[in-house]
Amino acid sequence: MAWNDLVIESWFPTTIGVVDYKYYEVNKQKWIDYVSSKPTRGGFGGDNYQPHEDKEMFGELNDWITKQVNDYAQRHKFVYEYEAKESWFIDYQKNDYNPWHRHLGNTISTIFVLSGAVNEMKTQFKNPIYDMKNPQGKVVKHDREDVDLFNEYTYHTCDYDTVPGRLLIFRSHTEHSTTQNIYDTRRIVFSYNFDPKVKDA
Fold this sequence. Notes:
Blueprint: E1 16-20, H1 24-36, H2 55-75, E2 82-92, E3 98-101, E4 108-115, E5 122-126, E6 157-161, E7 166-171, E8 176-178, E9 187-196
């Protein structure tokens, strides 16, 4: 390597798994109707409905999501087998959004898009590195990131479009959000948190 041949190597990436459920179209309407009949719009624990416990309606989907999560874990060389510990659904109606947050206390989290208009709302993930300087020379008018200022080494956030039937898999410590629904179209998602499977005694 010559003294001036700069090579940039990328380490410590933030990984997002992306996979589509091939049987989504066959099941989508009965799933949407079923979830829509639930009295809650989502939440944690308590009396709130948890899809991962509903083997009758979502057993096949839950098995598929668990398989994808464990594939993700194996590719990271994690030593455990993972299972869902909690789950919930969120029914985003007009003006709803989800602010930046993490699922701390868990290892792997997922978002499965049950319904929504393609590309109308975004799932966003944030770069875990907080740069206190201004190497891009940004000014106040750059209130929304100007993509021309950034590249794969420096993006502050990344966006994933709403794609019904798509599963996103990520480490639970990854900060993420959902943009505001400014349309009349509902967006329903399932969220799951995974931790190591408890072995039978």
